[in-house]
Amino acid sequence: MKETLASLSEKNWVKALTWLIRILVGALFIFSGFAKCIDPYGTFYKMMDYVGVLGLSFVTDGLVISAAFGLSILEFLTGVFLATGCFRRFTPILLSIIMLFMLPLTLWILLKNPVSDCGCFGDAYIISNAATFWKNVAISIGAVWLLCFNRTTGWLIRPYMQWMAVVASGSYAAALCYIGYSYQPLLDFRPFPEGSKLYTAENISNEESEPELVFIYEKDGRQQEFSEDNLPDENDGWVFVDRKEIQKSDASNNMVVTSGAAGFVLWDEKEDIDVTEDVLGDNENRVLILFPTLSDTSLAASYTINSMHSWAIDHDIDFAAIVGATTEEIEKWKDLSMPDYPIYRAEDTSIKEIARGNPAVVYLENGVIIWKRTLSSLPIQDFLDEDTPQSAMDFQIDNKRILLNISLLYIAVMCMLSAFSFIPVLNSLIMQTRPAKGKGRSESGGPEV
User: Model's pTM, two decimal places?
Assistant: First the structure.
């Protein structure tokens, strides 16, 4: 068997196929890791879905977010190792260990459908559970091939310089994770990116309809749709799977309200009254404080929020809070934080689709999302301080430029490592093409005729 593998490894088509598998599987892992690093909150939320489905109540949020960081960086590094030929013995083993875990997991997801999608590529590219499973089957086959032939094929970075590739790639991935968690994702693949409208309304003719959210829950392998007013009790075993927007006829309304791709809807603080158009339909400059949950929110943030509200009033900026909480939770929060700003309710999933963080801050001009940040990333703790910027635009961060700069720096480092790795090879080729010393001259020292 060893002799057969050794003889095959010398064939050019085997080496070419090995490189092809390296590049394809490496590119998949780089893309998957990059998408997760960009949006660690999204990876965290997906992992929490798994924790809920598996009933792992002992798992803490801190442990899950650490796992989200670790998985994102690990996938990115694995992809880089494969694509560059680093650690030719270790990388196929690492890939095989990952697939020994991921392949059974995605088979279970395919058969039981506990979540709507596995979250392999975050929000950047969503594929079905079936496609996820067969993708992992193909990767597992590639892993077996690389276990046999990866060591016999070359590298792009010399072994003694590969630790530098680890440092550069790990630092790049960790920087993306940190920025995505502490500020906002540098690339926004969600329904409400910067530059989009949080609320739009379009006239329609000869049709009278209004949007209605339908929620899909699953119990004992059976999925069922529920309206907003008839949601099942999760304590009875129902698990949230997905939601969708449908159009419901209403003869008293000749407008169709489209609040972004996911159907963002606001309700009154105390009653289930749709106030989306009343709150967001005036195109005012507005600061929104978003709370996916109130139970995990530090009370220390209330002072910053209250001072920010006063600052907004002084600058003719509308101000409101949107929370994913019950009326009772809102009342408790109000008793503790004493807010003077209006509070509205929304589905927590919709809030998470707009901005990451708890709480997060979103600034709109004429209804358009201008910037998003976590509250903790704002450099101001007291907005009543005399050094507070006068314009809300002073808090904007150029996400695209930051991503471009750190990506170009990372690519430049990797290209330099690859270039330095091939200097000895080039030098050897040059030496081989040089004529030997004395060659081309006659024994007497004169030129040959």
Answer: 0.80
